[in-house]
Amino acid sequence: DTGVSQNPRHKITKRGQNVTFRCDPISEHNRLYWYRQTLGQGPEFLTYFQNEAQLEKSRLLSDRFSAERPKGSFSTLEIQRTEQGDSAMYLCASSLLETEAFFGQGTRLTVV
Amino acid sequence: KQEVTQIPAALSVPEGENLVLNCSFTDSAIYNLQWFRQDPGKGLTSLLLIQSSQREQTSGRLNASLDKSSGRSTLYIAASQPGDSATYLCAVSGTDKLIFGTGTRLQVFP
């Protein structure tokens, strides 16, 4: 197993465009988390899945954000009508229930 | 609401020093505490996981302790090296998500 994989690693987009990120968790990990991190800050929780069920969404996750995890495997995070304030590193992590969480390398989004 | 604080925010030490990074949290009802390392522009690398029933964990030159009752954890790095330069983050979790501190940025100079 190669760990948590995120694609793309970098994304530059124009304001108002839609973007989609993908996360492939460690196989057999039933929990998958999305976080957002801006410069100099710790990661902020966005949402998490247990298998295919989305169990919690942060208030940070506006209506422009949507996440899915079909069949409890990979997950996608879509941002519609991007704004400059969406520029950040988007991190994905996976774990087996309440055990050690492993993070991917992140997707750096720049909105111009 | 759980809040996690890390002190100091930044630390610069000469190579070879032993050092301690601090993490405090407001709600002692946690399942786990995890320490991570983050290099600039990269993702997070898990260093140590301490379960709520444990008091410490060790991995190589790293030792992490947990005192749930006082809401504190420390990460001890022995004989620091320039390669240890990074941001160190602690995170606590209940039955669901991890909540992070803002990290300690460590620089070890030769």
Describe the structure.
The complex is a heterodimer of chains A (112) and B (110). By secondary structure, chain A is an all-beta fold. Helices cover 0% and strands 50% of the residues of chain A. Chain A has no helices and eleven strands. In chain A, the strands form two sheets. In chain A, strands 2, 4, 5, 6, 9, 10 and 11 form a seven-stranded mixed sheet that branches. In chain A, a hairpin with a 6-residue loop joins strand 9 (88-95) and strand 10. Chain A is globular. In chain B, the strands form two sheets. In chain B, strands 2, 4, 5, 9, 10 and 11 form a six-stranded mixed sheet that branches. In chain B, strands 1-3-8-7-6 form a five-stranded antiparallel sheet, with no helix packed on it. With 110 residues, chain B is mostly beta strands. Chain B has strands at 4-7, 10-14, 19-25, 32-38, 44-51, 56-59, 62-67, 72-77, 86-93, 98-100, 104-109. The model of chain B has no long low-confidence stretch (mean pLDDT 95). The termini of chain B are far apart. The chains are: A mainly beta (112), B mainly beta (110). Chains A and B meet through strand 5, strand 9 and strand 10 of A and strand 4, strand 5, strand 9 and strand 10 of B.
Main attributes of the structure:
heterodimer, A: 112 residues, mainly beta, four-stranded antiparallel beta sheet, B: 110 residues, six-stranded mixed beta sheet, five-stranded antiparallel beta sheet, 11 strands, 58% strand
